[in-house]
Amino acid sequence: MTTSLPSIAIVGAGSMGGAILQGLLDPSVTVTGGIRVTNRTEAKAAAVRADGVESFALENTPDGNARAVAGAKVVMLGVKPHMIPDTLADLAPFLEPDAIIVSVAAGVTTARMEAIVDNVVLRAMPNTPAIVGKAVTGLSAGSRATDDDLAIARAVFETVGTVVETPESQIDALSTISGSGPAYVFLILEEFTRTAIDLGFTPEQALTLVAGTFEGSLALLAASDSSPEELRRQVTSPNGTTERAVEQLQAADLKATFDQATAAALARAKELAAG
Prior knowledge:
Blueprint: E1 3-5, E2 8-11, H1 15-24, E3 29-31, E4 35-39, H2 42-49, E5 54-57, H3 64-69, E6 74-77, H4 84-91, E7 100-103, H5 110-114, E8 120-125, E9 135-141, H6 147-157, E10 161-165, H7 171-179, H8 181-198, H9 203-223, H10 228-235, H11 241-251, H12 254-273
Helix pairs in contact: 7-12, 8-9
Function: Catalyzes the reduction of 1-pyrroline-5-carboxylate (PCA) to L-proline.
Subcellular location: Cytoplasm
Catalytic activity: L-proline + NADP(+) = (S)-1-pyrroline-5-carboxylate + NADPH + 2 H(+); L-proline + NAD(+) = (S)-1-pyrroline-5-carboxylate + NADH + 2 H(+)
């Protein structure tokens, strides 16, 4: 299956922009009109050019962002949230009238961006598994976006994983789950590995045991019609060792801990939105 996309510019091809770029460079994807990106340094730009992509190093080409967006149908903003307003204001004179602006910055609303440019604006919230093509991306349309605009943006992010369309009122909440979620998973892996080491396994053995268990469990969930709750019950024999362990985990009230964590992340997203 091939994907055809219109011309794309990525303003700020850092870690996330770079991950999306790799998805766009997959042999199954055709980008009519090409891809242009910007990087802060010549070293980073040169690395991108090695993949056959036109890249402007802002340290050498101050008007690189303007040059990248000229003629682009999709303009992805990969800069930090506090840089979005100024970046958009600088780009406004150079954007094509029908360009679709897609921001991957947390907290900056489409209304705030629409006040700066006349273009269609959307927000996307991909997560770091985009690097290996396993992202979950939340996608929200601004007030000017049509179904066709949303379909184009969706196709861009489907090159690196799955897409969940959601009202913008939910995009910050989504970011606390899938956006920040990989950090939660890695933290659990980190602590569970430390426990395995304390039980006498080498660090290498411990990571193999823990990471392999997580990977296998997720594969089992993907292949099953059962819910996580049902699969957990299948592993938890009555009066067995796993039941004793699960009782301890449930006593720790993990739900409340996750509630507190996501609430803190959501509060921070609102702070970012307020500038």
